[in-house]
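User: My advisor, Dr. K., asked me to get a structural model of this assembly before our group meeting. I'm new to this, so sorry if the format is off. These are the inputs:
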Amino acid sequence: MFDQDPYPSRKNTLNVPSDTTFFLAFIILSFIYIFLLIGIIVADFKYVDMNSIKRFFNDPNIIYSLKLSIISCTVTTLLCLLVAVPLGYLMSRFHFIGKEVLDTILDIPIMLPPIVVGISLLIFFNTDIIIGLETFLQNFFNNPNLRINPTFTVVSVILAQFMVSCAFAIRSMRTSFDEISVRQEQVALTLGCSRGQAFLYIILPRAKRGMVTAATISWARSLGEFGPILIFAGSTRMKTEVLSTTVYLEFSVGNLAMATTVSVFMIITASIIIFLMRIWGNNQHEKREKIHD
Amino acid sequence: MRQFVFATMMLIFTLISSSMKMKANDEKTLKVYCPAGMKTTFEKASKEFEKLYGVQISAEFKGSGHLMGSIKLNPIGDLFIAADSSYTTQLKADGLIKEILPLAEMRPVIIVQKGNPKNIKSIADFKRDDVRIALANPEAAAIGNITKRILEASKDWEAVSQNATKNGVYKPTVTEIANVVKMKVIDAAIIWDATAKQKNYANDFDLIQTDLLNANKELATIGVLTNSKNPTLALKFARFLHAKDKGQKVFLEEGFTGIPNADTWSDQPSIILYSGGVNRVAIEKTIVEFQKREGVTINTSYNGCGILVGQMKAGGKPDAYFACDASFMSEVQNKFGPSVNLSETSIAIIVKKGNPLGIKTLEDLAKPGLKIGVGHPEQSALGSLTKKLLESKSLYEKIKPNIRSETPSADMIVAQFKAGSLDVCLVYIANVVYMKNEIEIIPINEDRAIAIQPFAIANNTNNHYLLERFLEALKNNHSHFLNAGFKYLPNLDIDKKEGK
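Assistant: The format is fine. Below is the predicted structure of the whole assembly, which you can bring to the meeting.
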């Protein structure tokens, strides 16, 4: 990149200092982060041993938490898209009174420490209204074991993941709708499309890449979710234990080998899935670009 | 560009200066790992210490198991408090903890929502389908661990844990469990009585006592981390939390049960130790190290054991007694707790290098004209033991004419022997092992020649646990006993057990 100066005319000017310092400083600063990042991942391997790897694939508790993690993250991701696509579209296209306020509210899960989300969920689902509703339904259906309260169940795992991840998905979807020109949509409308048809045939195909990004973010955020799950779903083995809880519990026992093995496995799984999503997203994008050309 | 470089330099400067500041404060700061359930108690007790001694105490609050994990990964800090003594014991076995002090007792108890709406009376109700229960993860929290142990023993565990999984929840700390009962999300749970009685939870629960749970108590302990940069201050704080008139008071206020014979608080405790003269070489170094590490003073009175026993009978009140022979312990045993036999040595015949007089057995000592030195039969354990040994072989009367010197301490006989005024002396091997190249040691293979050194802690001492730690220090430094010519007994016990 240093070979060809894209601005050869600068050579004629006097007193232009060398660009080397600039690049050197930037590279050094970038390198510090990259070095740290790779360093902490590699360091994990120090504690990984064969026994832990064997246990990882044989311990029913851990297999359960692995399954639950993958399933819950996927379900959460689909739910996020279901909400983020319409909400992102509305926020991108329309102006209304109180939009700034709504915008701020939508960012709350991003600003808040995740643990606050957990506590708030726990409180919300155990207010008198929900408990009263549950009692009413139990009496109505004459079934004392009927539960609508998701607290401490698998549903609460998904809810906890959803509350945080969705905020990121909405933000991502909104940005991607912002980037899609309004003109094509308007043309479609003038040609006789309904709003729904215009969205379905014009906007949605163009937003595919944005959706992939949103899905990737949601999935990754959900996998990393920990605090709210611990508060709202607990750490019940074979029920609400996800991989991040496993790491926490194994660490609690002082079983570093197992904690790091699970961590490393999480890093590998997450990297593969995000990598695949990215490649798939890029292919889709290229295909669409070709069609449009 | 210049600004950029300047900003970077500022950043580096700030980082360096702040890390230097932290270093300067090291001497007056303590880092403590404390179980989440003991947070309030800990903060209350530590506040007074901080004020009294200008020390800054920073603490991390999590489940005991989790804290143990942190310490194993990165053993930085000074103290670790555990709600269950097994955690501190385990870290000690791993070499990450040096000393352990008990703090308080706790018992598991059932808590239910105020007014007990689900009418829960015992563990049996924990299996009911309509009862939502919370348990602590057995691997993460001490209370979870003990709950599992108790219920496994009573054969309730399977049903109860299944119900918790199905209708209830597991949580990694005791406070989180208390919280969900307080919020009425959960109907019943098992937590520590001390947690349930905390002010934060006053009037939040009904407590249900059951014989099954009551029978189990757990000891909260504090351990000093091996890596502590300031062990003396850490120990001082540990002693403060443990002390009857300091930390114990707070623990009692907060619903814990106290430790019955806890030490009394003193800034710098001072201990009186009576020790038989022969033991001096074996324990001297340990005493110096112990005093330095603990920040305490040990006033040791080395003397012939007969004299020491006489002093005790006359009203001398040592905090601990390390006798030169078991026979001098039994006379005063009622003033002391159980004694621990630490070492043994045996009487030998000591002659000049090359054995010019050709002495081989005790019988040879009756040869006329020999100049023999022995311990004083009344004033020293050595003398008494020597006399009994000779009497058992009917030699005492025969040898008596040759005895030129009877002294209250072996060191005096050895000094006389070295000066050339004695041909033979009968002393412990431990008395002369340091000069074994200048003399000949002729061992006596008789059980009666063996002296065993027991250590005991006085019943009325105010520093029982401090002395327990001293005893442990003696055991840890057993090489000093070996170097001083003793056999170290607790080690032999271990060998025997392993041999089985």
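One thing worth pointing out at the meeting: The radius of gyration of chain A is 25 Å.

User: Perfect, thanks a lot.
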